[in-house]
């Protein structure tokens, strides 16, 4: 669902994937290999939204802004399910956890990780490589090299997803029984807790 607004048409790179159940409105620019999940609302009616290359905005996220401002997700920003980005700038290779809320004029430094359910109030500036949790937010430490590598690996999976969806996503009727030879997906990516245990 892509809509022009006040004569401004969204720009979506051909390699990006915007799910048919997402909504993109107005002054929105979406870069290469971006994934926009179902239920996401990317609403550029009162200002501009720029989503740079290799970002992902997952299911049921909201991206909006205070009138006359720009919301920017820099390259490889990873926005978890249900998060709200309202007028913030999210730095390069940042992870915003599920259901986190970033308010107006927030600036998240590159390579930071914002924990699930965190709340960052307007005008806060988060330094690069900060690990942030809580409501209200609190910086608890620096993001380690290992944690950043783990985050980057997860984002690379999402960078591949648009191409896979363009190639294979099809509407279909459901099966009525489970086939005996049903494929089971194999995954090599671990949760952070699993990775720490193995390491």
UniProtKB/TrEMBL annotation:
Keywords linked to the UniProt accession: Transferase
Pfam families: Hexapep (PF00132)
Region (Disordered): 180-199
One Gene Ontology term of the molecular function aspect: transferase activity
UniProt-listed SUPFAM superfamilies: Trimeric LpxA-like enzymes (SSF51161)
CDD domains, per the entry: LbH_paaY_like
Organism from which the protein derives: Hymenobacter luteus
Entry superkingdom: Bacteria
Gene3D superfamilies according to UniProt: Hexapeptide repeat proteins (2.160.10.10)
PANTHER family, per database record: DYNACTIN SUBUNIT P25, GAMMA CARBONIC ANHYDRASE-LIKE 1, MITOCHONDRIAL-RELATED
Protein name (database record): Carbonic anhydrase/acetyltransferase-like protein (Isoleucine patch superfamily)
InterPro entries: Hexapep, Transf_Hexapept/Carb_Anhydrase, Trimer_LpxA-like_sf
Biased composition (Polar residues): 182-191
């Amino acid at each position: 669902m892509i809509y022009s607004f006040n004569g401004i048409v969204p720009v979506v790179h051909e390699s990006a994937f915007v799910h048919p159940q997402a909504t993109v409105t107005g002054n929105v620019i979406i870069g290469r290999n971006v994934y926009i999940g179902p239920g996401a609302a990317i609403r550029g009616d009162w200002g501009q939204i720029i989503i740079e290359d290799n970002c992902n905005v997952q299911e049921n996220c909201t991206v909006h802004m205070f009138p006359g401002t720009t919301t920017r997700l820099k390259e490889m920003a990873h926005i978890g399910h249900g998060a709200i980005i309202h007028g913030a700038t999210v730095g390069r290779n940042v992870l915003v956890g599920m259901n986190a809320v970033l308010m107006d004029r927030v600036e998240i430094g590159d390579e930071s990780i914002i924990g699930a359910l965190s709340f960052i109030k307007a005008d806060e500036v988060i330094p690069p490589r900060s690990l942030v949790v809580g409501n209200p937010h609190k910086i608890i430490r620096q993001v380690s090299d290992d944690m950043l590598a783990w985050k980057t690996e997860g984002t690379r999976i999402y960078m591949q997803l648009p191409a896979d969806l363009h190639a294979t996503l099809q509407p279909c009727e459901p099966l009525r029984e489970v086939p005996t030879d049903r494929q089971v997906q194999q995954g090599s990516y671990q949760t952070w807790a699993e990775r720490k245990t193995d390491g």
